[in-house]
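User: Please write out a complete single-protein record containing the residue sequence and its fold in token form, without commentary.

AI:
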Amino acid sequence: MIVRTVSVIVPTCGRSEKLDTCLRSVARQALPSGVRMEAIVAFDGDEAGAASFDAAAIDSRITTLSIPAGGAAAARNAAIARARGELLVFLNDDCYPADGWLSRHVEMQLSMPDGGMCVGRTDWAQWPDETVFDALVRETPMVFFEAQMIDGQDYGFRHFWTCNTSVPIDAVQAAGGFDERLRPVFYEDVELGYRLSASGVAGVRYVRDALCVHDHRLSWDDYLRREAALGRMAVLLYEANPECFEAIFGYDSLMKFAGDCEAWLRLNERDAARAETVVSRQMSHFFEATEDWPTTRDLLYFAHLPVKRAAFRRALVAAVVEQSGRKDSQVGCVYRPDRSSAAAR
């Protein structure tokens, strides 16, 4: 693979301060000899933000564009259409690259005969008032799987996370880019990763030294809302790419999956409610790194799984029933736990 220009792609909406920090970190990146960098920022449904953001004050290599609200996939596609580089590097607007981040992506791509998919390391920011939940997100696979990944090893398409990923532009163009039906966000990156992998693109290779810090603090409630959003978006993923849906969830039928989700919800209602009661009480406590923390961390991680899964399944079932428009759908009634009961609080 030959790389003369690297195009850094950043979708954004309404986060100008974080975007400024992100792009200043990008502008500081050094590159191997003979390689140039450009950064393309796509403002998704934020025309005012695009008009007021002074990219030139940060670096002349940064260009901006504005699109009607279309979601992360549409924003990235619009930026890709402007890209002049042989290599695309995707970055979130709240991710701040460390020194050497971009050069490590380029070096890894050059080490692969035809390039491929690479994913860098993304560490969660540390907060001065860190809670137990913050520590869990950082140290367990609640969101990402960094702690389980080995530098230089190839992983599957499910690790194609566009907060810190690189791939040759010709591979993305040949695959048709991101699927804009997956909006506003979630699954649009791994769905592209699935199509790239199916077409023979190598990877996803983990590049531990391609480090970004993720300035995106989640609360426990945010986390459960995220799981619910993933459940709703899974329905759109099935419509867009049933094969990718099956590869992720193991079902070739959305209705069968939704029916099983509802059955699991009914079967595990009391366990999930009890788990939520116990786990939620711990999440907002201030974190202290005691000798017992590794054991406590592992216990809380496994204890939270019924709550996480219930949030996902409940939202997926509701989305399928709403989509069907029929009270007598194959999925049956929407699962609605009694939130007024003491057990569910």
